[in-house]
Specification:
Number of domains: 1
Helix content: 55-70%
CATH superfamily: NAD(P)-binding Rossmann-like Domain
Strand order of the largest sheet: 1-2
Distance between the termini: 35 Å
Largest sheet: 2 strands, antiparallel
Order of helices and strands: EHEHHHHH
Length: 134
Protein backbone atom coordinates (compact mmCIF):
# COMPACT_ATOMS: atom_id res chain seq x y z
CA UNK A 1 0.00 0.00 0.00
CA UNK A 2 1.14 3.49 -0.86
CA UNK A 3 -0.31 6.91 -0.14
CA UNK A 4 -0.87 8.76 -3.42
CA UNK A 5 -1.00 12.48 -2.69
CA UNK A 6 -1.32 15.22 -5.29
CA UNK A 7 0.92 18.26 -4.98
CA UNK A 8 -2.02 20.65 -5.07
CA UNK A 9 -3.60 18.91 -2.06
CA UNK A 10 -0.33 18.93 -0.14
CA UNK A 11 0.33 22.61 -0.93
CA UNK A 12 -3.17 23.55 0.28
CA UNK A 13 -2.54 21.41 3.38
CA UNK A 14 0.65 23.35 4.16
CA UNK A 15 -1.18 26.66 3.86
CA UNK A 16 -4.00 25.36 6.07
CA UNK A 17 -1.46 24.16 8.66
CA UNK A 18 0.10 27.64 8.75
CA UNK A 19 -3.28 29.35 9.05
CA UNK A 20 -5.28 26.89 11.16
CA UNK A 21 -2.85 24.43 12.72
CA UNK A 22 -2.19 24.06 16.42
CA UNK A 23 1.14 25.40 17.68
CA UNK A 24 3.47 22.41 17.62
CA UNK A 25 0.88 20.34 15.76
CA UNK A 26 1.94 17.64 13.31
CA UNK A 27 -0.13 16.77 10.27
CA UNK A 28 0.28 13.94 7.81
CA UNK A 29 -0.63 15.27 4.38
CA UNK A 30 -1.07 12.05 2.48
CA UNK A 31 -3.44 10.93 -0.20
CA UNK A 32 -5.57 7.94 -1.02
CA UNK A 33 -4.02 4.72 0.25
CA UNK A 34 -4.05 2.09 -2.47
CA UNK A 35 -2.10 -0.89 -3.70
CA UNK A 36 0.60 -0.01 -6.22
CA UNK A 37 -1.11 -2.05 -8.93
CA UNK A 38 -4.23 0.14 -8.60
CA UNK A 39 -2.40 2.97 -10.39
CA UNK A 40 -1.64 0.70 -13.34
CA UNK A 41 -5.22 -0.60 -13.40
CA UNK A 42 -6.50 2.96 -13.66
CA UNK A 43 -4.01 3.77 -16.42
CA UNK A 44 -5.08 0.62 -18.28
CA UNK A 45 -8.74 1.63 -18.02
CA UNK A 46 -7.95 5.06 -19.47
CA UNK A 47 -5.40 4.08 -22.14
CA UNK A 48 -5.71 0.37 -22.83
CA UNK A 49 -2.05 -0.17 -21.90
CA UNK A 50 -1.12 -3.55 -20.47
CA UNK A 51 -0.47 -4.07 -16.77
CA UNK A 52 3.22 -4.43 -15.84
CA UNK A 53 4.56 -7.86 -15.02
CA UNK A 54 4.85 -8.63 -11.34
CA UNK A 55 7.65 -10.50 -9.62
CA UNK A 56 7.53 -12.04 -6.16
CA UNK A 57 9.60 -9.94 -3.73
CA UNK A 58 12.18 -12.69 -3.23
CA UNK A 59 12.76 -12.92 -6.99
CA UNK A 60 12.91 -9.13 -7.41
CA UNK A 61 15.55 -8.95 -4.65
CA UNK A 62 17.58 -11.62 -6.43
CA UNK A 63 17.28 -9.82 -9.76
CA UNK A 64 18.31 -6.55 -8.09
CA UNK A 65 21.39 -8.16 -6.57
CA UNK A 66 22.31 -9.76 -9.91
CA UNK A 67 21.81 -6.47 -11.76
CA UNK A 68 24.04 -4.61 -9.30
CA UNK A 69 26.74 -7.25 -9.79
CA UNK A 70 26.36 -7.07 -13.58
CA UNK A 71 26.60 -3.28 -13.44
CA UNK A 72 29.81 -3.41 -11.41
CA UNK A 73 31.38 -5.72 -14.01
CA UNK A 74 30.10 -4.07 -17.19
CA UNK A 75 29.91 -0.44 -16.06
CA UNK A 76 26.36 -0.24 -17.44
CA UNK A 77 23.57 0.91 -15.13
CA UNK A 78 21.51 -1.80 -13.43
CA UNK A 79 17.95 -2.33 -14.64
CA UNK A 80 16.85 -2.86 -11.02
CA UNK A 81 18.60 -2.34 -7.69
CA UNK A 82 18.16 -3.84 -4.25
CA UNK A 83 17.32 -0.35 -2.97
CA UNK A 84 14.52 0.03 -5.49
CA UNK A 85 13.09 -3.33 -4.48
CA UNK A 86 13.27 -2.27 -0.83
CA UNK A 87 11.26 0.89 -1.56
CA UNK A 88 8.70 -0.93 -3.71
CA UNK A 89 8.03 -3.65 -1.14
CA UNK A 90 7.37 -1.34 1.81
CA UNK A 91 4.01 -0.15 3.07
CA UNK A 92 3.90 3.62 2.54
CA UNK A 93 0.29 4.24 3.56
CA UNK A 94 -0.51 7.31 5.66
CA UNK A 95 -3.31 8.38 7.97
CA UNK A 96 -4.30 11.96 7.17
CA UNK A 97 -7.42 11.96 9.35
CA UNK A 98 -6.05 14.57 11.79
CA UNK A 99 -5.32 16.97 8.91
CA UNK A 100 -8.75 16.29 7.42
CA UNK A 101 -10.46 16.91 10.76
CA UNK A 102 -8.43 19.87 12.04
CA UNK A 103 -7.40 21.63 8.82
CA UNK A 104 -10.15 20.70 6.41
CA UNK A 105 -7.51 18.91 4.33
CA UNK A 106 -9.01 17.31 1.26
CA UNK A 107 -7.67 14.34 -0.67
CA UNK A 108 -8.10 14.09 -4.42
CA UNK A 109 -9.29 10.57 -5.26
CA UNK A 110 -6.66 8.46 -6.99
CA UNK A 111 -8.92 7.88 -9.99
CA UNK A 112 -9.34 11.65 -10.52
CA UNK A 113 -5.62 12.36 -10.16
CA UNK A 114 -4.56 9.58 -12.51
CA UNK A 115 -7.08 10.81 -15.11
CA UNK A 116 -5.47 14.27 -14.90
CA UNK A 117 -1.96 12.83 -15.28
CA UNK A 118 -2.97 10.70 -18.27
CA UNK A 119 -4.66 13.69 -19.93
CA UNK A 120 -1.55 15.83 -19.39
CA UNK A 121 0.70 13.07 -20.71
CA UNK A 122 -1.42 12.77 -23.84
CA UNK A 123 -1.30 16.53 -24.32
CA UNK A 124 2.48 16.63 -23.93
CA UNK A 125 2.87 13.64 -26.25
CA UNK A 126 0.74 15.33 -28.90
CA UNK A 127 2.71 18.55 -28.53
CA UNK A 128 6.02 16.74 -28.95
CA UNK A 129 4.73 14.82 -31.96
CA UNK A 130 4.66 17.63 -34.49
CA UNK A 131 2.97 20.46 -32.62
CA UNK A 132 -0.57 19.07 -32.63
CA UNK A 133 -1.13 19.78 -28.93
CA UNK A 134 -3.29 22.42 -27.31
Amino acid sequence: MWSYAWIEDVARGHVAALELGRAGGRYCLGGENAAQMRVFELVRALTGRALPRRLPAWLAKSVGAFEELRASVTGRPPLLTAGTVEVLTRDWSMDSSVAVRELGYSITPLEVGIARVVAQAKEIGMTQEGGRGA
